């Protein structure tokens, strides 16, 4: 995709599309629907999740304190939920995703899979996990998802978000800065959205939440959002 940036910036026809469409001739969702492409995408997401969850469960286990049930909304094949269920057997873990995604999920006694649309309904639980999915939607759609999540949690529950927070100031590490720049380019390629703390806060308020907490983890963050 990087080699098509010049065309994207200079060609009027190309500038009306995303960088991903300029390179591949279709949207990311259509690409995933093509034979073989969905499997590649899901494999990449599982690999990313395995890395993220290893760090989270080793260094930030406290985010699951008091949680007895959790729904991984948009959780695809359930790698995050499976990791949580293994580390915390007392937590009832459920994965919510679209029917064509859930059909490819592995058989598991520790994780329940529910086919559905996160824009319409999220099963009730103490905590709702949103791992790296709000970044693919514009604010109005992200707020819709957050509202469904708020409806699903009790008064003492929360939404746990794994996503990027631009300019979090968590580290001056050069490697992390370079990683963030590469991530910026990747998000540009998929027409994704990156947000700073104030932009996140604005969405939380619009969705009806009352408080939040950021915990930087590398170039991403754990965001806990409370009703």
From TrEMBL:
Protein name: O-methyltransferase C-terminal domain-containing protein
Species: Triticum aestivum
InterPro entries referenced in this protein's UniProt entry, alphabetically: COMT-like, COMT_C, SAM-dependent_MTases_sf
SUPFAM superfamilies on file: S-adenosyl-L-methionine-dependent methyltransferases (SSF53335)
Lineage: superkingdom: Eukaryota
Keywords: Methyltransferase, S-adenosyl-L-methionine, Transferase
Single GO BP term: methylation
Residue ranges occupied by any O-methyltransferase C-terminal domain in the UniProt entry: 5-209
Pfam family, one: Methyltransf_2
GO molecular function: O-methyltransferase activity; S-adenosylmethionine-dependent methyltransferase activity
């Amino acid at each position: 995709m990087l080699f098509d940036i010049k065309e994207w910036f200079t060609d009027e026809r190309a500038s009306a599309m995303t960088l991903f469409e300029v390179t591949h001739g279709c949207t990311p969702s259509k690409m995933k629907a093509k034979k073989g492409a969905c499997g590649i995408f899901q494999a990449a997401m599982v690999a990313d999740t395995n890395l993220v969850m290893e760090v989270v469960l080793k260094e930030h286990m406290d985010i699951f304190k008091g949680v007895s049930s959790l729904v991984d909304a948009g959780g695809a094949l359930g790698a995050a939920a499976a990791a949580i269920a293994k580390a915390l057997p007392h937590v009832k873990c459920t994965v919510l995703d679209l029917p064509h995604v859930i059909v490819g999920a592995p058989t598991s006694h520790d994780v329940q899979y529910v086919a559905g649309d996160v824009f319409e309904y999220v099963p009730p639980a103490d905590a709702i996990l949103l791992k790296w999915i709000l970044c693919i939607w514009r604010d109005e759609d992200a707020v819709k998802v957050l509202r469904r999540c708020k409806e699903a949690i009790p008064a003492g529950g929360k939404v746990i978000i794994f996503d990027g927070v631009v300019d979090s100031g968590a580290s001056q590490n050069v490697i992390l800065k370079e990683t963030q720049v590469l991530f910026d380019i990747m998000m540009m390629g998929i027409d994704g959205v990156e947000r700073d703390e104030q932009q996140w806060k604005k969405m939380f308020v619009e969705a009806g939440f009352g408080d939040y907490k950021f915990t930087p983890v590398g170039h991403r963050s754990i965001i806990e959002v409370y009703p």
